[in-house]
Structures are given as C-alpha cells and as structure tokens.
Amino acid sequence: MKKDTNAIKKRRPFDKTIVLFFMVLFFIAVSVGIASQLKVYGQYKQEAEEILIQIQQEQEKNAEYLREKEYYNSDDYIEKVARQQLGLVMPNEVLYVNNAKK
User: Fold this and answer.
1) pTM for the whole thing?
2) Is 67 helix (H, G, I), strand (E, B) or coil?
3) Which DSSP symbol is given to 96?
4) CB neighbour list of residue 95: distance below 8 Å, 6 or more residues apart
5) How many CB atoms lie within 10 A of CB 82?
6) Farthest-apart Cα atoms in the chain, separation
7) Residues 24-56: pLDDT tens digits?
C-alpha cells in the first residue's frame, strides 16, 4: 500500500500544474473573448451615434420642407407668383409697364 500512496503524492504536483495551466489558458481565452466583444460593442455604439445624428439631420430637413410647403400654399406666395409670372393685378390696381430701352 505504501507504494500506491507515494505514487499518488508524486502525481499531485503534476496535477496542480495541469490545472493551473488550464486555468491560465481559460483566463486568457475569456479575456480575449471579452476584448473582442468590447471592440464590437464600441463599433455598434459609434454606429448608433452616427445614425442618431442622421436622424436629427433628416428631421431638420423635414421641418424645412414643411415650412416651404406652408409658404408655397400661402396667399402671399400665390399672389407673388400671379404678379411676377402671370402679370395679374389686384382689382383697382393699375399696372405700369416701362418699355424704355437703354
């Protein structure tokens, strides 16, 4: 029996070394995995920020288009176009045309 006990005692340091080796290997693998996930997270976060900026820019464009639409549907714009492009005048107005050549 003594021979078996000595054999077990001799294996223990070797077993500890193997366990320690695999623990270190596991720690390295987990660290590499976490580092790669952090990199991907950073890329997604930056992409999300860029998309939010694009959304804000598009909302500003949309607001500008709505203001233009409102202006183009206003009576002032319709009157301006009628006067400039169609040559129309309001009732009781007199249109003067200057045909003088320079």
Assistant:
1) 0.54
2) helix
3) -
4) 87, 89
5) 13
6) 131
7) 999 999 999 999 999 999 999 999 999 999 999
Using CA atoms, how far residue 20 sits from 15, 27, 46, in Å, is: 8, 10, 39
Query: Predicted confidence band at 64 (pLDDT cuts at 50, 70, 90)?
Result: very high
Q: At residue 54, what is the residue type?
A: Q
Residue range 82-93, pLDDT digits in tens: 888 888 888 888
The dihedral through the CA atoms of 29, 35, 39, 48 has a sign that is: positive
Q: Are 85 and 79 in contact (CB under 8 A)?
A: no
In SS3 terms, the chain reads as CHHHHHHHHHHHHHHHHHHHHHHHHHHHHHHHHHHHHHHHHHHHHHHHHHHHHHHHHHHHHHHHHHHHHHHHCCHHHHHHHHHHCCCCCCCCCCCCCCCCCC
Contact 70/64 with Cβ under 8 angstroms? no
